[in-house]
Amino acid sequence: MRKLPTMLIGIAGFGITLNTTAQFRCMVMDGGAEAVDEHMAQHASAALRGQDITIPVVMHVIWHTAAENVPDAALVQQLEVLNQDLRRTNPDAVNTPAALLGIAAGSDFQFCFADLDPMGNPTNGITRTYTDTVMFMDTWLGNTHMFHEETGGRDPWDQHHYLNIYVVNRSYFLGTASQPESHGNAHDGVAIDYPEAVGATRTLTHEVGHYLGLDHVFGGTFGLQSCGNDGVDDTPLQTYHYDCPTYPFFSCGNTTIGDLTMNYMDYSYRGCKNMFTQGQVDRMNAHFMQYRASFLGVTGCSFVGTEELATTADGPMLVPNPANGTMQVWFPSRPSAATIRLLDAAGRLSLSQGVANMQAGATIDISPLHAGVYLVQVLDDGIVIGQERLVVH
Length: 393
Ligand SMILES: [Zn+2]
Description:
The chain is of the alpha/beta class. The chain has two domains: 25-297, Collagenase (Catalytic Domain), CATH 3.40.390.10; 307-392, Immunoglobulin-like (Sandwich). It contains six helices and 16 strands. α2 packs across α5. It starts with a helix and ends with a strand. Bound molecules: zinc ion (ZN).
């Protein structure tokens, strides 16, 4: 009886070793560092601060062997890790050296699986495509065949409204990404090698960092550089790291805060990485506002206009509805705490409130809301357990 768990632990350990020793290889398609005005970056950051920026995600799994057909649970975990890393709610944030806590920062970006496909049909935000392509062969420019049905891939969903993440078996790069200037272009999106979609690899975090405008902390967006400028003020000049030297480690004449080997935009391995800096968050915000602002108007992960989505068999009750001023909400079958969330017609968060006991219900102050149609969602531990449409007049 004792052998089985021991063997499983052994296998798990083997898998982890393999993955952590895979050297990070990454590139940005049609890339090239460009200057971001520091003032504009800080202005954009200030304008966005405290507003959740929700980016709907579709993951396209392009598979030839069963192993490449990465299960939903692993993809859900990827998105969770991405959200934690971008918002600095990652459990290993405690490993950030004390000397860097002043510059470590979380953003207001959050990613969710799309609820509706481009045709308005309900979806779980994951597509699966069998391909005859045994392996997508990377050239130095990467591989774009995955973006096209006729070359063994799958056509992307409208990049103005979805972040397309491809999960494929590819020959060289662990991940590739398009830069913000490519917003809406045919090959706009992120693509990761399929083993990188299993476990907290941080590869998706790194690539989404590029997608939102970040360079490597050692400079540039392609290959190996040293002492390059990443366009961010609070990251020092440094070389690249595949390993995880004890902090502080200095290179490139940096004598101030040490190399940011724990930064998601270095090449260090998964267990080493745990932070972005405030300067990087400012840069992502600036790029988002300049190039990717079409996400501000998405009908996103939760869509108000669809009756079948807005009504659940056993759902929250809203009285009165239509309403203005205040509204009562309760959920008869849920004698537990929950969070009430109101999304406007564009899918943007308008209001969020905790409720101690949903069976007893609560009064929600909706007086700050403009007239219109809203989706009221009840969340238990971050999961939507029911939703109902509300008209505010
Ligand atoms: Zn990279």
